[in-house]
Amino acid sequence: MKSPDRIVKNIAPTSVFDDVSALVSSAISFNQGDLIEIDTSGHLVGAIGGSSTGQYVLGISRVTVVSGVVKQPYSTENDAAIAAGKIPGPVSGVVVKLVSKTSDAWVPGQDVYPYGTGGAYYVTTSGSKSIGIYQGPTIASAAAGQEIEVMLGHRYPGDTLVL
Questions:
Q1: 13 to each of 10, 104, 152, how far by Cα in Å?
Q2: Between the chain's N and C termini, which has fewer beta carbons within 10 Å?
Q3: Tens digits of per-residue pLDDT, 81-120?
Q4: Residue 67 falls within a domain, yes or no?
Q5: Residue at 144 is within a domain
């Protein structure tokens, strides 16, 4: 099954890393549409996880990566037979559909924070490091699984939100 392309509008698309092939290992897998961050101590990229603050967010993944290689439309019995190549870096400066934490209240222009506990494409209304700005209408209480539109930025390098 193809991962969803969560990008709905290109405003000023940019990538901190155009090619992240040097920043993945065979132990790294993530899906197209996952929020991606960089581990600055291991110098590897991966999907935002449970305790992520969003401090080193790079954007949203354009491709699915399985065991350090871009997932191909047709696979073999031995995926190791697929040659490693370039891996497009995550993109920011785009409006994306992400999933809101259940019961969160949203107002247009509000800061958006990662909610890694929910999943690699979940967001919430509170946190320590904003990763974007909410773009939709006022929502009193988000339903379970409700998608919202977010102008997504990046925080790396420098730990400052860049839209």
A1: 6, 28, 10
A2: N
A3: 555 689 999 999 999 999 999 999 999 999 999 999 999 9
A4: yes
A5: yes
